[in-house]
Amino acid sequence: MEYPVSVFWFRRDLRLTDNHGLFKALSSNTKILPVFIFDSHILDELPATDRRVNFIYRSIQKLQNDLKRKNRQLMVYHGDPVWVFENLFAQYPIQAIYTNHDYEPYAAQRDAQIEQLARKHRAEFYSFKDQVIYEKGEISKPDGTPYKVFTPYAKVWKSRLGAEGIPYWPSEKLLENLLPDVSVKMPSLEEMNFKPLDFDYPLTDLVPDLLKNYSKTRNYPAMDATTRLGIHLRFGTLSVREAVKAALLYSETWLNELIWREFFMQILYAYPQVTHQSFKPVYDRIPLRDEQSEFERWKQGTTGFALVDAGMRELVQTGFMHNRVRMVTASFLTKHLLIDWRWGEAWFALHLLDYELSSNNGNWQWAAGSGCDAAPYFRIFNPMEQAAKFDAGQEYIRKWIPEFNTSAYPNP
User: Fold this and answer.
1) Per-residue pLDDT reduced to its tens digit, 113-164
2) What is the reported pLDDT for 373?
3) Sorting pLDDT into bands at 50, 70 and 90, what band is 229?
């Protein structure tokens, strides 16, 4: 090959626009080979019906179609990333690997392996901040320690954003620097042992009217009044910078939710032990109930508490649950049933389309009272009062519990 080549490795940034790492790669003095890897270490742990894999697959297909219009091709592989890159080094004179940061524990371990592999082949490994505005310890107390309470963290976050502004990385303008005439057969879902699923994907548009009314309507689960953009932020089909710009224009409430996402990410970075223990360790000494039968009823939405059951059925059937209902179902499991928050966290992790380790862990520990800036241990969401307040007409409950108010529906 007559010209030097570098790789851009897509992961949680499945878009061509405002992509930090892709922009840096395309701005280098090499032709860029775009690569995506269906990581077998992750996929082998998932059920064949996992909706998120279907979402990623369709997002990759969209990327492929966008690139084909520019006579370019995304190279898609399935397997161990180390094996994939070993083969790429054997085929191409790769000078560097470019990608964007992934902060979860397995991803950090994997990236360290790939960086070591690159060095073995005398190549560079570059990674960039893309899925957050502020990462790791960038927002910290004056003494350098991490914030454990959201409000002062958010105050500093907003102040810093106001001073620095929001960057934009016009990667879409440099796509001619992608390597032409490359091709690899994209594996099918079936070849990766997954089933193609037919279900509706969440909204992708930042609708001004929805955001303008967000603070007034977001708590009513029967209304189509939330953005449902969590999955797009999770897999980077939407730039977080675009989301923050829209929030600044239309909704302070939604902006705070975006900041909560980054708050929990910095908590995970500073306190990685929260993945397996309570942020406040003393809460792990509380005796909890090992009630598998009650946990099963909670999972399947047959507790007899209608708002809880409606939410749990929505989760299993769609991969989504309204945020107000997430708080109610989590409180019910941890405060009413006195079951370990980790059980609920794992169930949500299995089903949520917008699952993100830091947010899922942070929100479950918040509900249980064991986390940073958590709801007090004595705060309990009354599921019946919550239903009366936020689903007074029982529209949401009846949608997900068709047998409601019949003898087929269980009593609490």
Assistant:
1) 999 999 999 999 999 999 999 999 999 999 999 999 999 999 999 999 999 9
2) 79
3) very high
pLDDT confidence of residue 139: 97
How far is C-alpha 119 from the geometric centre of its chain's CA atoms? Answer: 30
Contacts with 331 (C-beta within 8 Å, 6 or more apart), sequence order: 367, 375, 379, 380, 381
Q: Identical fold at 131-166+204-270 and 274-400? A: no
Q: Which burial class, exposed, middle or buried, applies to 163 when counting CB atoms under 10 A from its CB (0-12, 13-18, 19+)?
A: exposed
Q: Pick 1-130's CATH classification: 3.40.720.10, 3.40.50.620, 3.30.70.260, 3.40.50.10420.
A: 3.40.50.620
Give the domain ranges of the chain: 1-130, 131-166+204-270, 274-400
Q: Given 1.20.1250.20, 1.10.10.60, 3.90.960.10, 1.25.40.80, which CATH number is that of 131-166+204-270?
A: 1.25.40.80
Q: What is the predicted pLDDT for the residue at 181?
A: 74
The amino acid occupying position 249 is L
Q: Characterise 236 by phi-psi region: left (phi > 0), alpha (psi -120 to 50), beta (else).
A: left
- For residue 405, the model assigns a pLDDT of 86
Burial of 400 (0-12, 13-18, 19+ CB in 10 A): buried
pLDDT of amino acid 202: 62
d(CA 264, CA 272): 11
Task: Name residue 78's beta-bridge partners.
Answer: 38
- Classify domain 274-400 by CATH number: 1.10.579.10
- Give the count of alpha carbons within 13 A of 82, CB side only: 12
Q: How confident is the model at residue 353 (pLDDT cuts 50, 70, 90)?
A: very high
